[in-house]
């Protein structure tokens, strides 16, 4: 029987998204293409490749169980899979939900696929556009408050619950001195036959530690993790949101980003679960607000920045950062910096690190060392379980590397060893001394931090948010010597161990 086909992309794995929401086995056939070109196009982290491919195969199986005719195609490329499907089934038309990346939307247009608006995010770019109006850009805080009001989340009438919009002040505590086991261990999952098959096919192209059940690959598994998070972890979310500990990789982070990004979870259900726990008195307001801010604020803001500024945005390099990615990023043994080694090894083991480790350790280091932002983006994209172009590009180019010259962030997120020492337990026992700016054991973060503001003083002295740091760098007694040490560190980064 000739039916229209819905092409489902690998990050749209939810029955309630866009085109699939209104479809039944009687009205539509489904096409999912597993493209060998995509899998072998880069050296992915094995947990990331496994997560995406296993989630696709299991979602296809769930649709089949529901009665859909699913054409799950193994093909050399998306185009090849699509063409073969059309030849075999002669669908009346092929339709899809708007893909989540610029490249996939271009491909859909080239293939003549009709697309319907995506419901995978809470703020569609058209809605964002009408909120923005003629303004050049919107601050995340304004966007977030608008989202709170229009979605009626954490609102008491027209006022924010508890009378305040923002609990950042309470949520930036350093790590506690003791009780580092207070955060519940994340749920684990048994690997099944499908997982093992997938691993066999992707493993040879990948790097990193094989999965041991850290990441679920079904909607049921994702829902279980969401419930576990809301019941057991969310009450602790706020306070130490920005803290880092070498002995604890998750703290109170939700670990929900991979599921949200491939559609196994939808943002509205996560937000509803968090708000409902707060309303029942099970979660304090600073934790509920801090978490909801990430989902309806940051996540949706980043999504809309992507659509507002791509494709040119991904190529921006306003600070002219040209350094190649140092070998330590692919081999953590090549650094003696305790903070970098801990975060890089964690990524090898789990394909994950939490936000502050991404922003204030890896991103900060890439920024102050002048690493090429496109190379850094690519490495992060290959390495992280939750990576996707729409979220990786604005977070790297804009938020962490200031490569957009300040379109997204109003200041560069640069800091020295003092910040890392305050917010983590890495510095104690490190080969370097976070207070030193000169000498063999000078902390690379501290040295490169001051050097960064000296290198870019003309630009940043005009920025009110960091002008003070620039003037402090100019006034350092030893700034000549410090710049010599910085050059040595930068040189050593290319070949030796730093
Ligand atoms: C340099 C850099 C690269 C990043 N790359 C990615 C990426 O590829 N994929 C990705 O999903 N996130 C990325 N982020 C954002 C953020 O670090 C992760 O979403 C978060 O660490 C995921 O872990 P979690 O689910 O435990 O988060 P939690 O701390 O529990 O936060 C809850 C949720 O909020 C959302 N969120 C929070 N901050 C952001 C943000 N800045 N942008 C988008 N969503 C946000 C995520 O969906 C996350 O699951 C990046 C941030 C930086 C600074
Ligand atoms: S001393 Fe410097 S390099 Fe060592 S852990 Fe602290 S910030 Fe990192």
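Sequence proposed for the structure above (498 residues):
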């Amino acid at each position: 029987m000739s039916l229209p086909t819905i092409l489902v992309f690998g990050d749209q794995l939810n029955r309630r998204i866009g085109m699939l929401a209104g479809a039944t086995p009687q009205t539509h056939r489904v096409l999912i293409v597993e493209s060998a070109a995509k899998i072998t196009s880069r050296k992915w982290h094995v947990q990331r490749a496994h997560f995406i491919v296993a989630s696709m195969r299991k979602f296809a199986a769930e649709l089949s169980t529901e009665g859909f005719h699913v054409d799950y195609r193994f093909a050399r490329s998306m185009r090849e899979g699509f063409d073969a499907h059309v030849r075999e089934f002669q669908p009346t038309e092929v339709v899809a939900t708007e893909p989540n990346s610029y490249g996939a939307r271009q491909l859909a247009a080239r293939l003549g696929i009709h697309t319907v608006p995506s419901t995978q995010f809470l703020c569609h770019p058209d809605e964002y556009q009408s909120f923005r109006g003629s303004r050049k850009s919107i601050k995340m805080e304004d966007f977030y408050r608008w989202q709170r009001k229009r979605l009626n989340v954490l609102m008491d009438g027209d006022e924010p619950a508890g009378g305040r919009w923002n609990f950042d002040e309470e949520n930036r505590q350093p790590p506690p001195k003791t009780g580092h086991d207070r955060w519940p261990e994340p749920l684990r999952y048994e690997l099944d036959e499908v997982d093992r098959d997938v691993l066999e096919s992707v493993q040879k192209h990948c790097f990193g530690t094989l999965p041991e059940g850290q990441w679920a690959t079904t909607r049921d598994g994702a829902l279980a993790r969401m419930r576990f998070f809301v019941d057991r972890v969310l009450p602790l979310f706020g306070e130490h949101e920005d803290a880092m500990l070498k002995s604890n990789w998750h703290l109170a982070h939700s670990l929900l980003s991979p599921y949200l990004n491939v559609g196994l979870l939808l943002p509205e259900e996560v937000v509803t679960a968090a708000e409902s726990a707060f309303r029942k008195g099970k979660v304090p307001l600073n934790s509920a607000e801090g978490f909801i801010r990430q989902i309806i604020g940051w996540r949706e803001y980043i999504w809309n920045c992507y659509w507002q500024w791509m494709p040119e945005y991904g190529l921006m390099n306003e600070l002219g950062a040209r350094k190649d990615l140092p070998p330590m990023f692919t081999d953590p043994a090549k650094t003696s910096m305790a903070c970098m080694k801990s975060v890089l090894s964690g990524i090898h083991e789990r394909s994950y690190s939490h936000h502050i480790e991404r922003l204030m350790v890896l991103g900060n280091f890439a920024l102050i060392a002048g690493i090429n932002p496109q190379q850094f983006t690519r490495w992060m994209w290959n390495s992280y379980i939750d990576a996707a172009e729409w979220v990786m590009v604005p977070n790297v180019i804009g938020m962490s590397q200031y490569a957009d010259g300040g379109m997204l962030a109003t200041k560069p997120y640069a800091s020295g060893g003092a910040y890392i020492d305050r917010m983590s337990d890495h510095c104690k026992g490190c080969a370097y001394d976070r207070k030193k700016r000169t000498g063999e054991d000078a902390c690379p973060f501290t040295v490169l931090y001051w050097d960064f503001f000296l290198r870019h003083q003309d630009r940043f002295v005009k920025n009110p948010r960091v002008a003070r740091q620039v003037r402090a760098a100019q006034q350092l007694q030893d700034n000549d010597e410090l710049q010599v040490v910085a050059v040595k560190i930068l040189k050593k980064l290319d070949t030796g161990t730093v």
